[in-house]
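Quick note —
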Amino acid sequence: MSDPKVPPIGPRIREQRARREVTIRALARVVGVSPSLISQIETGKSQPSVSTLYGITSALGLSLEDLFDASNGDESAGAAVIADVAGLRYLSRDRAKGVGPHVSPDDRDLLTLETGVTWERLGQVPNHHVEFLLVTYQPGSASSADRRLMRHSGTEYAYLISGELDLALGFDKYRLAAGDSVCFESTRPHGYSNDGEVPAVGVWFVVEPS
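Predicted structure written out below.
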């Protein structure tokens, strides 16, 4: 793969913030970070953590697809695109693929977090705000490196296929085993971690508000 194009995540955040007439200081207050960090993220001098990125998208009413979708008019069809944001590695092939009704493993979009978590998009129906994902937590991995809980818009449904996974949901903690399922509003503080010795693999649906 030669010279992959990297979507400008910082400028896209700045563009969406300006379009909504939200100041840097106001966005920082909602996300819970300093205005200087927001400024550094927008100018590309700093990269957001996963939880900060979720905070920004939630505050601005964006989806991850809004930020990472690389199907811009100046990109050729079939081009591979990689965006690397604080350890999030987003690999997108031809955007005509990975939608459905049939999606093969080779056509899936892949998002890898810095802590060793992978999200594979299993399919997408246009104009429906649902993330349909095969999620793998490698041993020792977690939703965020510092185990900080995060929250974002939508409703989360998950079914664990194999392995074990710990879920912190507010003040409650759950140990998920193969065959277990969970569902909750994603606005509740939550985070996953795999402290076991084998990968934890499951199917996730994150349904965004209409």
